[in-house]
Design a protein that fits this description.
Length: about 260
C-alpha cells in the first residue's frame, strides 16, 4: 500500500510538473526504483504511465499541424524506428548493466533539464527574429533517429533534444516546434511501449495507477501554473533529480 501511495503521489507531481515546466519523468522514474521495481521494468512502466501526457499535449496542439506535412511524416517514421531500436537495446541490456547505467542516465537527463531554460529562451528569440539556419533532411533524419533511439532506451531529456533539432527544420514558430515534439515523443513511446508489452516488461497495475495520477496532475497544472512560480517548480525538479542521481551513484559505490 505504501508503494502504491508513493507511485500515485510521484505521478501526480510528475503530471503537474509536465504541465507547468516539463521533466516529470525525473520524479516518476526514481519513485518506481525506490518502490522496488527492477530498473528495466521501471523504465518500461514509466514510459507507459507518462505516455498519456504526451498524447494529451499532442491533442492540445492539433491546430499546429498545418505545415510541412511531408517533414512530419518522415520524422514520425524515423521516430517509430528509433523507439523500436531503443527499446530493443534496452531489452537486450542485462538488468545489472542497466542498473549500473541508471545514475549516468539520470545525470544526463538532469543536465539536459537544467540547460533547457536557456535553450527555450534561445528558441523563442529565434522564432521572434527569424534568422534560421536550416539543416538538410539528410542530416535531420539521422539525428532524429539517434534521439529517438535514446528516447526508446531511456527517454529522460529526449524532448529537450528534439526541441533543439526541430529548430533547424524550417519550422518558424515555437508552438509548431512544441507540437511536433509532442507528436514525435508520442510516436517514440508508443513504439517502445508495444515492444515492452510483448516482452512483458511493463507492470500494468503500477502503470495504470501512475497514469491516473499523471492525468489528474496534468489537469490540475492549469490552475497551479497560475499560483506557483515556474522557477520554484524547476528548482524542485533539479533538487529532486540531483538528489536521486547522487543516491543512485552512492548505491553503485556500495555494490563495488
Amino acid at each position: 500500500m505504501n508503494s502504491i501511495s508513493l507511485l500515485f503521489s510521484a505521478s501526480l507531481i510528475a503530471g503537474i510538473i509536465n504541465g507547468v515546466a516539463g521533466g516529470g519523468g525525473l520524479v516518476a522514474f526514481p519513485a518506481l526504483l525506490i518502490s522496488g521495481v527492477p530498473s528495466i521494468n521501471a523504465n518500461a512502466t514509466n514510459a507507459a504511465a507518462l505516455w498519456f501526457g504526451t498524447v494529451a499535449s499532442t491533442v492540445a496542439y492539433r491546430r499546429e499541424f498545418t505545415h510541412q506535412r511531408k517533414l512530419l511524416l518522415l520524422l514520425s517514421c524515423v521516430s517509430v524506428m528509433g523507439g523500436i531500436s531503443g527499446s530493443y537495446l534496452l531489452l537486450h541490456t542485462s538488468p545489472a548493466k542497466f542498473s549500473a547505467l541508471v545514475p549516468y542516465l539520470m545525470l544526463i537527463a538532469t543536465l539536459l533539464f537544467i540547460f533547457s531554460q536557456p535553450l527555450m529562451k534561445f528558441l523563442n528569440k529565434r522564432s521572434q527574429d527569424y534568422q534560421q539556419i536550416r539543416l538538410p533532411l539528410s542530416l535531420i533524419l539521422p539525428l532524429q533517429l539517434i534521439i529517438a533511439t535514446y528516447g526508446g532506451y531511456f527517454g529522460g531529456g529526449c524532448g529537450i533534444l528534439m526541441l533543439a533539432l526541430l529548430n533547424f527544420t524550417g519550422l518558424q514558430n515555437i508552438h509548431g516546434i512544441n507540437a511536433y515534439k509532442s507528436w514525435l515523443a508520442t510516436c517514440i513511446n508508443a513504439a517502445a511501449i508495444v515492444h515492452f508489452s510483448f516482452a512483458n516488461k511493463i507492470i500494468w497495475f503500477e502503470a495504470l495507477i501512475m497514469a491516473v495520477g499523471a492525468i489528474i496532475g496534468a489537469y490540475s497544472s492549469a490552475y497551479l501554473a497560475r499560483k506557483l512560480h515556474p522557477l520554484w517548480i524547476r528548482s524542485f525538479i533539479i533538487g529532486v533529480s540531483l538528489s536521486m542521481t547522487c543516491y543512485f551513484f552512492i548505491q553503485q559505490l556500495n555494490k563495488i
